[in-house]
């Protein structure tokens, strides 16, 4: 691949980005799309924009970028929660470390690469890309110390920055937990695996148990029954109730005689909106024979609830299982009644499912990888031969088409993974999303990084025409293609736009104002982390990738802040639990980088340089161990507020 | 290797075993060695044997075997604790599963192997050993379904038996925790990482903290000071005090003016012998400027101590770290004062150290592996040529010498691993031993199993004379050699015997009656588990190994029970925590067996049989997940006794 081909690809992407961003800046001012682009604000602040016709509406503008940049951390925390802050800090960390890496690599390493061999240099645009990678350094070169030095600096600074961020987020998490006074979840324990007894009702069992063993702080409880039909009616009632709140609904399936009842949380005085349960006596009448599934137990103090949630209750760890209850809005009701004994089977089954899915996904990835090599396209799709002879078309196909197809395939990953996570049986929305986030991350690292590289190497070997030197270059093409395109698509909210259009103009239905999506952390966190991994592992080997990556992170910073502030609603919050995932991924990326460099320096027959890649691995692992001791416990539990 | 060579090796071992066991049955009746063979009884029950000369003393007898077999589980629990029971159950499980495996494999699989190829059969003693292994089955044989079936039965029954044992030990653990009423450890919390304050003394800091946050159940506390010299004096005093108790010592280093003081545990009324601390005021006088390292905090109720130990105390997880205190006799005093913040470095460093040690150990193992192949010995040690020409000598060398040398090398492993475990900074003896046990186990599995196999394969390839078919056969030779020999040496207590002899007859010192060793779980558990792994992985491939293994486990059952009852003292007890280690190892062994069989059946070009090895893997992993949910939490913490 030549520099010019890369530039063409980048140019197309920049063009599309500018176009889409301008389009966005216009569309966001149209009243018709206000629900798509300002969902959060609408839901919180009622209508702001009136449907007046002003010419200004149709002029692209940049004000939204300024707004997104100006917003402070407090605003973001208030608007989108601690998870948003954690996500934002991931981007800030990436921008910082890759700015440094870009400066060091472009000015330090790129010249070493370019002048690494005494050859005749062409003009830069028609130079082959591998002239700028480590491929161009001579075997047994004495200049590899530059690479080692840069690696040391990057690893050291990355650890330093990670420490700052971890500390910052841990502090915010503690503040966040202290600040939320109206937080019924902290007073409540979710009890599962309540054993059947000869006693007449499950409710009295729960009462007996907690009065006996937690007498000092036990307040009262609410049993959740596993009731097929009643469950469905409850779910229906809950939905309907949500609609009634906005008093716009007429066509509900609500059985009007059975209303959902809202228990005011007597501890904090707040009315917890989601603890909508049928009154116990009414349920008991209907479902005497139904199994008691779980119970929410309320305590007088936060400390009491915390202690009760941490202790093992009986000698059988699958009975009377206590956990801190999720926040009312966070409860994933359809999983609450799952028998606790079943969960281990579900966990194994979903693990298996994810593995099989990851393996089956190899097929499209391998095919697409083939597309980016032009002679493969000639062979596999011979009818395109005429078209491919034209230089620009061929550059588009090699630089752009594979990314688009791969992107479309990757869109199927997160729905499938979140389905797996749902089947796993988490009791809260945030846990479900976080588990999906980990799954998608493993999937990305495995499939996009390892397999992409491996299949590329295999194809190259089959061809015998090109060597593995193109791998880093191919990755460089991924970033403008997939990265920038996906950001633009996120900004444009293509799905939301089309959905809105169909609802409004095709089906002519009234808009559903209650539905505002939550931020898809399970797709966006892995995406950002994957590009980070790509950046670290290519930094010293193919530094040309870094400017593209830096542009991606800058754009991402603007876009995601804007989306968090305007589009998505914070219904639930895991309290910054995405940060440990990000931290571990960066640690993994840094270690992998060292291992890759060890291999590359070994191939260059420079044992000294290869040897110098070993000590940082131990340094990084030690740092990780330190963080696990110092910060991680705060993300697993929290210090009690003894009130 | 021929059958006759194997039989020679086995014969020599049987001879040596019978000789040593007879010798043991004589020696144990000699009053001179009573401290070696009845250390525990002497320490507990005072002298039983008088120094009368009876002829019976010099006649070998079998009564001790009957005694060892007759003793009930209650006796063993009383004499040697729950760890001994767990170890005993490992042996019982092994005997049961390998009896079944031996029956199935010898009657089902051995004929398939022997008649697997249509060749002329020699007389059995001069038949090559590989005639009895899977090597002799034809490629694409239809008889491999027998192997699959046997594998299924073994895996299923192993899981069933493991479930019974896990349940049994969990029940015993609960009973054990309930039964021990005089157990100060359960009322005590060990606090580390106490921060420095402007406050005048550390003691008042601890008092303030626990009075403030655990007012309802806090009783009092005892600070442990980090004091260089004072620490040493205390250790000396402790030792001396132990000697004084038996009032036999005259030559102690005790500073008589400073006596160790025994605090009676005011909760249970028992005098806890090891909480021997200097009175606070005296210490404070000497070491005003010394750092406060840790504190034992005593609670009114077990439940209060348990809750305090489980909660995170402050927003910094490295300060005010609370754990349940070890039992008085279990406290590892020299690690108590280690700064908590340092522990993560120690953990990383010992991990590194163990890795390096495991890698360096490859050298002797590879050399020894070479010895078991006769032509290698010829080449490496040419001066032995004349000797090696004699058939019996060569059979001894191939069958016996390598095991002895390897055994001697392996004797260095456990002291080094326990040194690493000490450096890691555990606060109790039992934790230290358990951690060493895991390390030795990893080392054994890695070095003896994987590397032994791999180096054997490499050597075979270098020779080009023999193929990998000898590997299973070589392993078969390991069991009579290493297994039986190590059991006999354990029974004979060679080290103890020599030590005792030197002390008594060479140095003419008075015997140290206070010193009775504790059972070396960290060497014996890994040894037994390694033979289990060997048994599972060779069962269907080289069934001839099973009778030898079964003999090993039977002998082990007798020997270890005898040793636990008579020789070793139970000073501390981890409460059956060795069982989860054993369970995980068996799970690993079963999965590895399936994977090895997958490979072997694949080489035999039998895709159906290979495919049938996949489902058991998932079954085994599911079973493991079930046990982790159902039983493992009981081994990490325990349900509170609310008294």
UniProtKB/TrEMBL annotation, chains A, B:
GO terms for cellular component: plasma membrane. Residues 186-335 form the CSC1/OSCA1-like cytosolic domain. Belongs to the CSC1 (TC 1.A.17) family. Residues 5-164 form the CSC1/OSCA1-like N-terminal transmembrane domain. It is a multi-pass membrane protein. Keywords: Ion channel, Ion transport, Membrane, Transmembrane, Transmembrane helix, Transport. Residues 346-601 form the CSC1/OSCA1-like 7TM region domain. The keyword Transmembrane applies. This is CSC1-like protein RXW8. The keyword Membrane applies. It is found in: Membrane. It comes from the Eukaryota. GO terms for molecular function: calcium-activated cation channel activity.
């Amino acid at each position: 691949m030549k520099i010019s081909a890369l530039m063409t690809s980048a140019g197309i992407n920049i063009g599309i980005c500018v176009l889409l961003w301008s389009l966005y800046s216009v569309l966001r001012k149209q009243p018709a799309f206000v629900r798509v682009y300002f969902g959060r604000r609408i839901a919180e602040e009622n209508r702001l924009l009136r449907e007046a016709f002003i010419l200004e509406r149709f002029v692209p503008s940049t004000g939204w970028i300024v707004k997104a940049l100006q917003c402070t951390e407090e605003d973001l925390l208030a608007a989108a929660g601690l998870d948003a802050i954690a996500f934002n800090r991931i981007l800030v960390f990436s921008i910082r470390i890759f700015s440094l890496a870009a400066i060091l690599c472009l000015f330090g390493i790129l010249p070493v690469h370019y002048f690494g061999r005494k050859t005749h240099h062409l003009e830069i645009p028609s130079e082959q890309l591998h002239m700028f990678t480590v491929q161009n350094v001579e075997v047994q070169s004495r200049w590899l110390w530059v690479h080692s030095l840069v690696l040391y600096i990057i690893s050291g600074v990355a650890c330093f920055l990670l420490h700052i961020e971890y500390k910052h987020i841990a502090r915010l998490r503690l503040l966040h937990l202290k600040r939320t006074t109206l937080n019924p979840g902290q007073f409540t324990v979710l009890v599962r695996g309540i054993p059947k007894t000869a006693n007449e009702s499950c409710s009295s069992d729960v009462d007996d148990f907690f009065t006996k063993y937690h007498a000092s702080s036990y307040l009262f409880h609410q049993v959740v029954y596993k009731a097929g039909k009643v469950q469905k009616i409850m779910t229906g009632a809950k939905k309907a109730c949500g609609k009634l709140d906005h008093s716009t609904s007429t066509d509900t399936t609500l059985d009007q005689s059975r209303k959902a009842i809202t228990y005011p949380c007597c501890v904090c005085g707040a009315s917890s909106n989601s603890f909508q349960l049928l009154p116990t006596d009414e349920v008991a009448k209907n479902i005497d024979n139904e199994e008691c599934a779980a119970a929410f137990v309320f305590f007088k103090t936060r400390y009491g609830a915390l202690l009760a949630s941490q202790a093992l209750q009986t000698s059988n760890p699958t009975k009377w299982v206590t956990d801190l209850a999720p926040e009312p809005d966070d409860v994933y009701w359809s999983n609450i009644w799952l028998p606790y004994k079943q969960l281990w089977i579900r966990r194994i089954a979903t693990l298996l499912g994810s593995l099989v899915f990851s393996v089956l996904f190899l097929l499209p990835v391998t095919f697409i990888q083939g597309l980016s090599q032009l002679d493969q396209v000639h062979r596999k799709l011979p009818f395109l031969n005429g078209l491919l002879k034209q230089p620009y078309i061929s550059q588009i196909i090699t630089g752009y088409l594979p990314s688009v197809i791969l992107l479309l395939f990757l869109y199927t990953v997160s729905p499938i993974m979140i389905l797996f996570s749902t089947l796993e049986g988490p009791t809260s929305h945030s846990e479900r999303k976080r588990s999906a986030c980990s799954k998608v991350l493993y999937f990305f690292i495995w499939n996009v990084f390892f397999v992409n590289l491996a299949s590329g190497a295999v194809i190259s070997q089959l061809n015998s025409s090109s060597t593995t030197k193109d791998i880093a270059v191919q990755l460089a093409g991924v970033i403008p293609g997939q990265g920038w395109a996906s950001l633009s698509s996120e900004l444009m909210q293509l799905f939301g736009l089309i959905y809105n259009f169909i609802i409004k103009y095709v089906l002519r239905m009234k808009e559903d104002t209650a539905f505002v999506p939550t931020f898809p952390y399970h797709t966006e966190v892995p995406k950002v982390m994957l590009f980070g991994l790509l950046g670290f592992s290519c930094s010293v080997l193919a530094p040309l990738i870094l400017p593209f990556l830096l542009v991606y992170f800058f754009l991402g910073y603007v876009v995601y802040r804007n989306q968090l502030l305007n589009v998505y609603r914070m219904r639930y919050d895991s309290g910054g639990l995405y940060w440990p995932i990000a931290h571990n991924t960066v640690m993994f990326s840094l270690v992998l980088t060292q291992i890759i460099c060890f291999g590359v320096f070994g191939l260059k027959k420079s044992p000294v340089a290869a040897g110098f890649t070993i000590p940082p691995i131990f340094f990084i692992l030690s740092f990780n161990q330190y963080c696990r001791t110092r910060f991680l416990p705060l993300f697993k539990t929290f210090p009690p507020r003894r009130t």
